[in-house]
Amino acid sequence: MNLVREVEIDNALNGSAAFITNSKVKAKLATTPKQSSGVEGKFLLFGGGDGAGDRVLGYPIAYTNSIPSNLTKGSATSVCSAILFGVWQNLVIGQWSGVDLLVDPFSGSKEATVRVTAFHDADVADRNAENFSACVDVTTACRR
Fold first, then answer.
1. Is 70 a domain residue?
2. Could you count the other beta carbons within 10 Å of the beta carbon of residue 140?
3. 69-120, pLDDT tens digit by residue?
């Protein structure tokens, strides 16, 4: 995959690297053969598909549906997903406060409900942009 290559070219593969994507890409990787001919049952996603021990190109892969699956590229409208590869220990998460909770017993008083709102100030940055690469056009259209 070019994702790994891009990080390697920049000499930035200097830690524990891994992939992250969504469940639609997971399903595609689990059913895409490594080669068009040869041994059956050899797919791009290596592992049980249950998330524990799954690997792609020897690197661990994690899944979250927070990774978008409704991206567009060319004529592929809202059917593309993203997959990211990186040295995740170089990702920095800054927090400027704790979690602020606001309890509002008045807004839902007619329904006898209480509304609780949480606020948290945080940001994400990378120490070195070369530690990460992304593909945002994995076609994950599903035929039903």
1. yes
2. 21
3. 999 888 777 889 999 999 999 999 999 889 999 999 999 989 999 999 999 9
For residue 23, give its domain range: 2-90+130-139
Q: Output the domain CATH number for residue 40.
A: 3.30.2320
Global pTM value: 0.75
Strand ranges inside the chain, DSSP E: 17-21, 55-56, 59-63, 71-73, 76-87, 91-95, 100-104, 115-119, 122-126, 132-139
pLDDT band at 131 (very low <50, low <70, confident <90, very high): very high
In three-state secondary structure terms, 67 is: coil
Distance CA 117, CA 107 (A): 12
Q: Which two tokens stand for residue 43?
A: 């797919």
Which residue, chain included where needed, has tokens 């490594």? 34
